[in-house]
Amino acid sequence: MKHTPTIRAELDRYLQQEGLSLTQFGHIADMNRGAVSAIVTGNKPLSVNQLDRITEAMGLPEGHFYDLFIENYIIDHPPNMRRIEPFLFRCAELDKLDAIRRVVGAIMDNLLYSPKLFEIAEELLAQGRHAAALLLYEGVAEAEKYQHSERLAVCQYRIFTIQVGDDQSRNLSAATIFEVFVERLDEIDQLDALKDLANVYRSLRKWDKVDEMAKKMRAKAEIQYTLKHQQNSREHTDSTDKLSRPLFVYISYADLLCASVCEAQGDYQQALDYTYTYANLDWVMETDEDTRHWISLFKSWAEGNTYVYKLLSGDINVLHDYVEYIVATSATNENEKISKLLNVIIAANQYSIDVDDILKRIESEINSFSEHPLSDDMYTQQVIPDYIAWFGYELAYYYLHRGSYNDGFKHLMYSTVSYHTLNNETYFINCMGLFLHFRDHAVPETKTGFLNLIEKVWMTNVEKNGTADYRG
Q1: For 164-233, where are the alpha helices, taking DSSP H only?
Q2: Could you tell me the pTM of the whole model?
Q3: Average pLDDT of 195-207?
Q4: What is the full DSSP assignment across 434-468?
Q5: Contact 124, 100 (CB under 8 A)
Q6: What are the phi and psi torsion angles at 286 (to 5°)?
Q7: Cα gap 156→310, rounded to integer Å
């Protein structure tokens, strides 16, 4: 049987090796002699703070004894949350994720620890330590998977928001797993959850799911809005205060999402009808500054999208007015520029419109798209990167079909790399198809660049999927 070493034995050995007394070592470690003696003799459990002092005094790297701490004081003892909680926070600070994983695995057989681990996870999330929080949420969710509790649903919501990232294939999986838990959330929390799901599905262009999430969100938000103004109770007002947006926004944003679904389906008249609906916000009862801000946004979006749907339906006479609208509103929201300009280039490709002058006018904006800001907001985090990649493809299509091959291949390469980063196979293949269609017009350096990218993607897939490489 393998003997597990102890921190106590390691410290005792160090003291003998260095010829230090308990008092001398205590001075180095900023601990009194009695505390050091209790640790060496095993008469007192060790705290993580004391462990860190001992580790530093011994000249060892931070966290050196953490695995032994888990063995000596967590696995070999009844779990004590007063000892475990500060240890988990310290592991998170040092990015000791394996240690956190071991602790969770050691104590989560007992559901009594779920509430405290959930609280710790919430605090870690608030601190921005998402990877550490994720391990705790996953542990609690696994332990409570048969409980059908609201805490389980919240854990799944947190897991979903943490896991969503650049990989659109993983995002689809995360959204699919979380979706079944939405109805178990608090009725107010469901609104943000449905909004986030809708935005992820929107970035994936899963329009049937966007439509489903939007309509559910609208129905639930209408009920809550009615309750709020019928009851006018402080309790209901306090519950809606935790929403990320004013309550009415979820109703109007649902209409905006439904309009985008209709746009994707080519039903521009229905998209216009939805747009006119969210433009009319006379029914909103609140008058505070935040409400006025959102009303202004919806009216601006409605103005722009009215131009868009008319333009995409073939009324190219509105193009000039739409461009002037874009220029006039370009300073209000950086994230909206890409979607507005994307509509211009889609219409240009659809109706063979020459927009060279417009592209020259907005050249600086186009060049800045790759610098979109990081955000926890699902729209900014998910929809905007997809729009940027999409814009690159449409711009490449425009230039290549007009014989501007250098510009075309430049934007196509950017879009191709973006879709590879997003792990979106469908649109990556579309980019490859566009390249192959025009490859005879590519200079040798451009061809080499695309071929190298294809080989890189191939080798990445070989490595990821375990497919054999027989090149020798």
Answers
A1: 168-179, 189-203, 207-231
A2: 0.86
A3: 95
A4: HHHHHGGGS-HHHHHHHHHHHHHHHHHHHHHHT--
A5: no
A6: -75, 155
A7: 41
